[in-house]
Every structure is written in structure tokens, then in C-alpha cells.
Amino acid sequence: MGRPPQTDIITILLDAAETVVVRQGIANLTLDAVAVEAKLSKGGLLHHFPNKDCLVEAMVQRSADGWRACYGAAYEQSAPGPGRLTRGLLTHSFTLSWNEQLRRSSSAVFAALAHNPSLIDPMRAAYTDLYQRIDADGLPPGVGAAVAAAVDGLWLNWVLGLVPVDQALVAKVRSALEMLLVSATQASPKRTRAAVSPAVAAKRSRATKVTAKTSKRKRKRGS
């Protein structure tokens, strides 16, 4: 029986690292513990991840890639129109099964925060991209960000066990956010128009300034 492909070995190691964090705590995330959990030699682990920083960074990168894929799929599966990404994010997040696999994958972020906060950069980049896209989602200012923050807050409560998160609470929060989106998308077209690109916005700003200066000169000539 041959050895698993390299990609499979890396997946096994990252799965093992997440399991160690969930089962034994972040403080016990060591290369030795991961090798034992993965049922591989420490030398085999070191071949792919020569130190703990490399391991944690790979955990965060995989988690960030998964999150990008998640909100990307949410957008594609949502109907076109104002708030497409925000609506998709709401539906997708609350339709997914919040299970131990999802809880385990979130361990990467907490491991990075505890070990070396700079290693969380891939997730920061994913969230920066998400919120930039939400800002251009054609909703009144702050509406999309409020929905994303509410989803994240509920997820954090569930992961950390801050408050019990059951189906009744999820249903109430989802209903409230859906009403917010309905209200926002029924606002006046002036408020819900799609966001323009920075280049177009700058061009419009320059045109407005030119018009204002022209009007000012005409007023001076007429005085």
C-alpha cells in the first residue's frame, strides 16, 4: 500500500492540529501532539511544517480559504439585485449545519491569536475583501455590515459557548435580519442604488467641482 498523496498528508496534519486544539486546548497544540494525533512520525510532520508558526499559518490559511469559498458560493446562489451578497450570506450561514466540524475549523483563528497574532493575516484579508464587497452591495450604508456582524456575533457565541445558541434563537435572529433587508431593499432607489467604482466616483466628484466653479464664476459676472 503506497503513501497518501502530499495534499492528503497535509490535510491529515491540519485536521489533526484542529482536533488537538478542540480536544486538549490551544496551550497543548504542539508538533508532538499533532504528529501523534495524525498517526505520523514527527519527522514526517516537520517535512511539511518545520515549526509551529508554519503549522498555525497553514491552519489559518485553510480556514480563510474556506470562508472565501463560503461567501463566494452565497453570492452565486443568491438572486441578482440590491443586497445580493448580504442576502446570500444570511441564507447560506443559517442554512449550513453548525456542527463540530465547523467548530473545529474555527480553532485555527484562536490558535493564531494565542500563539502569534500576526499569523491571523489571511483571515483578516478575507474579512477585508468581504466587507469591501458588502459596501458595494447596493444597500443603504451600514445595513450589509450590520447583517455580517450579527452573523459573526451569533457564530462567536456558539463557538465560545457565551450564550446557548439553539434553533429558536437562530430563527429569531434570522427573521429580524431578513426584515431589516426587506426594509432596506424597499427604500427609495436613491438610497439603494448600486455602489460605483472608486474611479467613477472620483470622476463624478471632479465634474461636480467643475460645475460648482463654473456656477460661481457666472454669479460673479452677473453681480
Task: Explain briefly what this protein structure is.
The protein is mainly alpha-helical and 223 residues long. The chain is 75% helix and 0% strand.
Structure description:
By secondary structure, the protein is mainly alpha-helical. The protein is built from 12 helices and no strands. Residues 190-202 have low confidence and may be disordered.
The CATH topology of the largest domain corresponds to Tetracycline Repressor, domain 2
Query: Helical percent range?
Result: over 70%
Distance between the termini: 94 Å
Low-confidence stretches: 190-202
- Tell me the number of strands: 0
Number of distinct helices: 12
Give the biggest sheet: none
Gross geometry: elongated
How does the helix and strand content classify structurally? mainly alpha
CATH architecture name of the largest domain:
Orthogonal Bundle
Radius of gyration: 24 Å
CATH hierarchy class name of the largest domain: Mainly Alpha
Bin the strand percentage.
under 5%
Mean pLDDT: 83
The run of helices and strands is HHHHHHHHHHHH
What structural keywords apply?
223 residues, mainly alpha, Arc Repressor Mutant, subunit A, elongated
Which secondary structure elements does this structure contain, and how are they paired or packed?
Elements lengths: L5 H19 L6 H8 L3 H7 L3 H25 L7 H12 L4 H6 L1 H9 L5 H15 L7 H18 L6 H19 L3 H4 L5 H25 L1
Helix pairs in contact: 1-2, 2-3, 4-5, 4-7, 4-8, 5-9, 5-10, 9-10
